[in-house]
């Protein structure tokens, strides 16, 4: 037998805060740069930044091209620092669990 779904009211975002247009679309506004990475391709290096967007959770942050973000949102890069991801509260209420990868030196699995 199915049970009634009880939603979490803390996860509901009021539409007044988002600013929905007549076309039922809205513009995401970046709030903070969380991390930076450089990927090496065969002939070039591509820099990316992890962006926290307004009205989104930390878990939903996305990787965007650094040059594009600098052109569109230069105010995010003025401080010269990338914020620590631990300073941004997680909305899940769970501790931030990260895997620590350490290459093994032996042939044993554990």
TrEMBL record:
<dbReference type="InterPro" id="IPR016197">
    <property type="entry name" value="Chromo-like_dom_sf"/>
</dbReference>
<dbReference type="Pfam" id="PF00385">
    <property type="entry name" value="Chromo"/>
</dbReference>
<dbReference type="InterPro" id="IPR023780">
    <property type="entry name" value="Chromo_domain"/>
</dbReference>
<feature type="domain" description="Chromo">
    <location>
        <begin position="31"/>
        <end position="78"/>
    </location>
</feature>
<feature type="region of interest" description="Disordered">
    <location>
        <begin position="85"/>
        <end position="110"/>
    </location>
</feature>
<protein>
    <recommendedName>
        <fullName>Chromo domain-containing protein</fullName>
    </recommendedName>
</protein>
């Amino acid at each position: 037998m199915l049970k009634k779904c009880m939603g979490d009211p803390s996860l509901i975002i009021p539409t007044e805060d988002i600013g929905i247009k007549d076309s039922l679309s809205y513009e995401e506004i970046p709030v903070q740069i969380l991390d930076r990475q450089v990927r090496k391709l065969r002939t070039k290096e591509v820099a990316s930044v992890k962006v926290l967007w307004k009205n989104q959770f930390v878990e939903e942050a996305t990787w965007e091209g650094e040059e594009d973000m600098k052109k569109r949102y230069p105010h995010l890069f003025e401080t010269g620092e990338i914020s620590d991801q631990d300073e941004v509260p997680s909305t899940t209420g769970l501790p931030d669990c990260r895997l620590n990868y350490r290459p093994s030196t032996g042939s044993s699995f554990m």
